[in-house]
Specification:
The complex is a heterodimer of chains A (415) and B (286). In chain A, 43% of the residues lie in helices and 15% in strands. By secondary structure, chain A is an alpha/beta fold. In chain B, helix 2 runs parallel beside helix 9. The termini of chain B are close together. Classes of the chains: A alpha/beta (415), B alpha/beta (286).
């Protein structure tokens, strides 16, 4: 298993200023550039520490939010491409349904692949509902736009015979001929984040890596949809390197210390999705059928299909005046959103979770979240890097005999 | 209101109509002057008294905009022009002449786009709180951002009487208990389609205002005095761009005068269409 260290780079000084929203509407007067620059400096220090310890590194991007100072995955990764030496670099990812120009995405990713000597992995993602406002992207028909952008990017990377023409429904180009080409040929590895079985099937058609983010145990059905589709296409049973999972990870010298640290991280789940309803479920983001179902469930006027995650521990936690309880930490662990405890416990939890997923090859590790200090993060990364990572890297594929049984079970479900 | 929901719905028939391969629902009732009613962006409210009242004033045709009802939006429909041409085709297919178009909110935008293309089959145009044009500077917002406001804020901006926002197939209800699956589907699909047609540029066509001079039929621009979603000043500017347009304000109404003051609304419309008010009153259950 590969482990990808990641931080959203939260700007926690602004958390709790507004109990309704950390996203879209929180004025940027609450951002102090001197403090922000220091946060970036410490974040990159911890990225470099993780690189030294054998982690791979992940970046994402969010906009108009105090939850994430990674406003451009390209900027973060181009810096990491020059300052790291070993780690593979994952963008997860480029919100291509929101980008007006997919060819630009293809160019930037090709550049970073060259800058890093072929260490880039490119996530192409749809983006969360709150991301639409910052770029004025239409939430309706996003999925169609996503796949057209995907197709255009892949073609831009793999076409080498001079300009090609693209007159699609959403994007128009007459002279696509990118320089540079990707360092890795024919393309860098491609990832797509997935939340539904139908998308998983579509990604299986492409053979890309799929990842679920904080999807908990229900991720299994998403991964199985990918596996079933792969078998349906007559291809070999997909190896674990096709599957990634993002969770919070808190390691301490003892179980108690690991759980205590997790209380600092838990607010990531409690607070960071705070936003007004209309930004959580913009029109067309979720299918009509899902919105009708939500109304019938008694949403009392809410068209939301997104459950607010977190402990529901109330205003003091939201305002950062109080840390979540150990009970809510344990609830997150039960849901598979958080692995926490001593190195041995965390290793066991991750191994068990991977087994429950039918084998995952990538752990996307939120080793920094919530109110952790940078020293906490460094300690967390060191403990994990020294005492958990070596064993995970040697973790074998899920047992072949067991796999055969599951493969047969899946085959039975394939029409 | 003099009509209950049941009475209003009962006076109309509904059928599917296919126009060049696009199928939608058409509510129809009454006789006399043909009235094409183009509903607001929230969707058609089959139980709203306005439909029965208009059917008592003339031959009402109230189609559901493609993409605003139980049927999927036609995949090739993505601009306001698609809806305008759809309705021009519908008038042609039904061989309707001297049609009075009565349109509200987003339906008013469609009606204006339709009329700048052709008024050949039209006699009158009534636009109630239409969106569709840009008046202010680039940093002004003529039309409140419905996608960035919560339900309570929208009710405050759109209604004189907030209680009215909680009846029938209103999209701003707190509680959707008692509505059929079809009604919920229409509400959800309408919301999505408003994004398809009106996300950007937001609820307007930057080119529309310069062509409004082409509307060469008597036009009434009606505005709720308490409309804070689109201010009456916006309505006055809309009317000023249409040569034969009159601007009139309805008291005790917000953005939906056809919902908040349906009787007064139809009375004003009937006067404008020179339909004898006695026939309206006679056709209306007391």
């Amino acid at each position: 298993m590969r482990v990808w260290q990641f931080s959203e780079m939260p700007y926690t000084p602004a958390w709790g200023l507004d109990t309704d929203s950390l996203r879209v509407t929180l004025p940027n007067s609450n951002y102090d550039p001197k403090l922000g620059a220091e946060i970036y400096r410490r974040q990159f220090e911890n990225y470099l520490l993780a690189d030294d310890l054998g982690f791979d590194l992940m970046s994402n991007e969010h906009h108009s939010t105090a939850t994430c100072l990674q406003a451009s995955t390209s900027v973060i990764l181009s810096s990491l491409a020059r300052s790291t030496t070993n780690a593979r670099l994952l963008s997860l990812g480029n919100p291509i349904a929101n980008r007006p120009d997919p060819v630009r995405v293809a160019e930037e990713m090709a550049m970073i692949d060259n800058l890093s000597g072929g260490r880039l992995e490119v996530g192409l993602i749809r983006g969360t509902p709150a991301e639409l406002s910052s770029v004025n992207a239409n939430p309706a028909r996003m999925v169609d736009r996503f796949w057209e952008a995907h197709d255009l990017i892949l073609k831009a990377w793999t076409s080498h015979d001079g300009p090609f023409n693209w007159e699609g429904e959403f994007f128009q180009h007459r002279q696509v001929n990118i320089w540079p080409t990707p360092f890795q040929q024919p393309t860098p590895p491609v990832w797509v984040t997935v939340g539904s079985a139908s998308t998983a099937r579509r990604v299986a058609d492409e053979g890309h890596v799929i990842a679920t983010l904080l999807g908990g145990y229900s991720s299994r059905s998403t991964f199985d949809a990918y596996r079933a589709r792969t078998l349906e296409l007559g291809r070999p049973y997909p190896k674990s390197d096709r599957f990634g999972y993002l969770a919070l990870v808190s390691v301490g010298a003892t179980d108690e210390a690991g759980l205590e640290r997790a209380r600092l991280m838990q607010p990531h789940l409690d607070v960071s999705l705070l936003m007004p309803q209309q930004f959580l479920n913009p029109p067309g983001y979720a299918p009509v059928e899902a919105n009708v179902a939500a109304l019938k469930r008694g949403a009392k006027g809410s068209l939301s299909t997104h459950q607010q995650v977190g402990s529901g521990e109330g205003k003091d936690v939201m305002l950062g005046k109080k840390l979540p309880s150990l009970a809510s930490v344990k609830r997150s662990m039960d849901q598979g959103l958080l692995f926490a405890g001593s190195p041995d416990s965390v290793l066991q939890q991750i191994t068990d979770f991977s087994r429950a997923m039918g084998g995952i090859g990538h752990l996307l590790m939120l080793g920094h979240a919530g109110y952790m200090s940078f020293d906490d993060v460094a300690d967390n990364i060191k403990l994990f890097g020294n005492e958990v990572l070596p064993a995970l890297r040697e973790l074998p594929e899920v047992d072949e005999a067991e796999l055969a049984a599951e493969r047969d079970e899946l085959r039975r479900t394939v029409p | 209101m003099s009509l209950t929901h049941e009475e209003s719905a009962a006076s109309l028939s509904v059928r599917d109509i296919d126009v060049h391969g696009v199928t939608t629902e058409l509510y129809e009732g009454g006789s006399g002057t043909p009235i094409l009613y183009l509903h607001a962006g929230e969707g058609l409210r089959p139980s709203a008294p306005i439909l029965g009242l208009l059917a008592s004033a003339g031959h009402l045709l109230a189609p559901v905009h493609p993409g605003f009802g139980v049927k999927p939006r036609p995949p090739s429909f993505s601009t306001i022009g698609d809806l305008a041409y759809f309705y021009l085709d519908l008038l042609e297919q039904l061989e309707l002449d001297k049609v009075a178009v009565v349109a509200a909110d987003f339906g008013g935008w469609i009606a204006a786009e339709l009329a700048v293309r052709s008024t050949a089959r039209l006699s009158h145009l009534v636009l109630a709180g239409p969106t569709g044009i840009k008046c202010g500077d680039r940093e002004d917002r003529d039309i409140a951002d419905m996608f960035a406001l919560g339900r309570a804020e929208l009710i405050e901006l759109m209604y004189e009487n907030p209680a009215v926002s909680q009846v029938g197939e209103s999209s701003l209800r707190e509680d959707f208990d008692g509505l059929s699956d079809d009604a919920l589907t229409s509400i959800a699909r309408s919301r999505e389609s408003m994004a398809v047609f009106g996300w950007s540029p937001y609820m307007h066509n930057p080119r529309l205002r310069q062509w409004l001079h082409r509307i060469d039929i008597p036009t009434l621009v009606l505005w709720g005095a308490r409309d804070r979603f689109t201010l009456p000043e916006y309505g006055a500017a809309f009317a000023a761009a249409i040569p034969a347009a009159r601007f009139e304000v309805l008291e005790a109404a917000g953005h939906y005068p056809h919902i908040e003051q349906p009787e007064r609304f139809v009375e004003v419309v009937a006067n404008f269409l020179e339909i004898k008010s006695s026939s309206v009153v006679a056709g209306r259950p007391s």
